[in-house]
Design a protein that fits this description.
Blueprint lengths: L1 H9 L1 H15 L3 H9 L16 H7 L2 H26 L7 H24 L12 H11 L1 H18 L2 H26 L6 H21 L1 H9 L11
C-alpha cells in the first residue's frame, strides 16, 4: 500500500485532470435535456414523477423512446470518461505490463467515480441530477466485464422477481464490492496475471465507494420499498 500512496502523491495532477474532465462529462444530464426537447422546453424531468433525472423516471413520465435515448447517452458519456481516464494514466512509464494495467485501471475508476458524481450533481443543471445507476453500470462494463456479467445477472434476477428497478439497482449496488473483491482476488491475484494485493484492495475500495453512493441516492426508494409503496414496472396491455 505504501507504493500506491507514493504513486498517488506523484501523479496527483493526473487524478485532478481525470476527475475534472469526467465530472464535466457526467454533468451532461441526458434526462433533463431529452425531456426539455420532447416537451419543447415546457417541462423539467426533475419536476415530474419521482423527481429523479434518470432513465426510470423518463420511462414513466415521458415515454419509451426518450428513455432509450437517456440510457444510451448516459452510458456512453461514462464510457467516454472512463476511456479518457485510461488514456491519461496509460502514459505512466513502467517496465511492468501488469503494473501499467493496474495504473490504467486506477484511471478508469477515478473517471468513473467522478462521472457518476457529475451525473448526480451536474454543474450545468443546478447540481440536481440522477442516481448514477446507468453510469455506474457503464463504468463496471468498461472496467471489468467479468464483474459486469455477475452484477447484471444479480440485477436481472431481482428485477424479474420483484419487477422493481430500484430494488434490483440497490441489490446490485450492495453486491458490487464483494463481487469485485471475489473476482479480482481469485482470478487476478491468486490465479491470474500477477496483479498485486494492493490493487485488489484499491479496486474493492473504489467499488465500495460507488456502491454506497448509489445506495444513499436511493434513500427515498428504500423507504418506499419498506412501506410497500414502490412502483413496479409492468407491461401495458394493448
Amino acid at each position: 500500500m505504501d507504493f500506491y500512496l507514493s504513486f498517488l502523491a506523484e501523479n496527483w495532477w493526473r487524478f485532478l485532470i481525470t476527475a475534472l474532465a469526467a465530472y464535466l462529462l457526467g454533468s451532461i444530464n441526458t434526462a433533463v435535456m431529452v425531456t426539455s426537447i420532447v416537451t419543447k422546453g415546457k417541462k423539467d424531468i426533475r419536476e415530474m414523477g419521482s423527481g429523479n433525472a434518470g432513465f426510470t423516471n423518463v420511462l414513466r413520465s415521458v415515454g419509451k423512446v426518450p428513455a432509450i435515448i437517456t440510457i444510451v447517452c448516459d452510458a456512453l458519456k461514462c464510457v467516454a470518461a472512463v476511456l479518457l481516464g485510461a488514456l491519461i494514466f496509460s502514459f505512466i512509464n513502467t517496465d511492468s505490463a501488469v503494473l501499467s494495467s493496474e495504473f490504467v485501471n486506477c484511471g478508469k475508476y477515478t473517471a468513473g467515480i467522478f462521472c457518476i458524481l457529475g451525473h448526480s450533481y451536474p454543474v450545468y443543471f443546478h447540481f440536481k441530477g440522477g442516481k448514477g445507476v446507468v453510469t455506474a453500470a457503464a463504468l463496471i462494463a468498461v472496467e471489468d466485464w467479468r464483474v459486469f456479467v455477475v452484477i447484471l445477472a444479480v440485477f436481472l434476477i431481482v428485477f424479474i422477481i420483484t419487477k422493481i428497478i430500484s430494488a434490483a439497482s440497490i441489490t446490485a449496488a450492495v453486491m458490487y464490492a464483494p463481487i469485485t473483491f471475489g473476482v479480482t482476488f481469485i482470478f487476478d491475484y491468486l490465479n491470474g496475471d500477477g496483479y498485486s494485493l494492493g490493487y485488489v484492495i484499491l479496486s474493492t475500495a473504489a467499488s465500495l465507494i460507488i456502491g454506497i453512493f448509489v445506495i444513499v441516492k436511493h434513500k427515498a426508494n428504500i423507504g418506499r420499498l419498506l412501506r410497500g409503496e414502490e412502483k413496479k414496472i409492468t407491461a401495458k396491455k394493448g
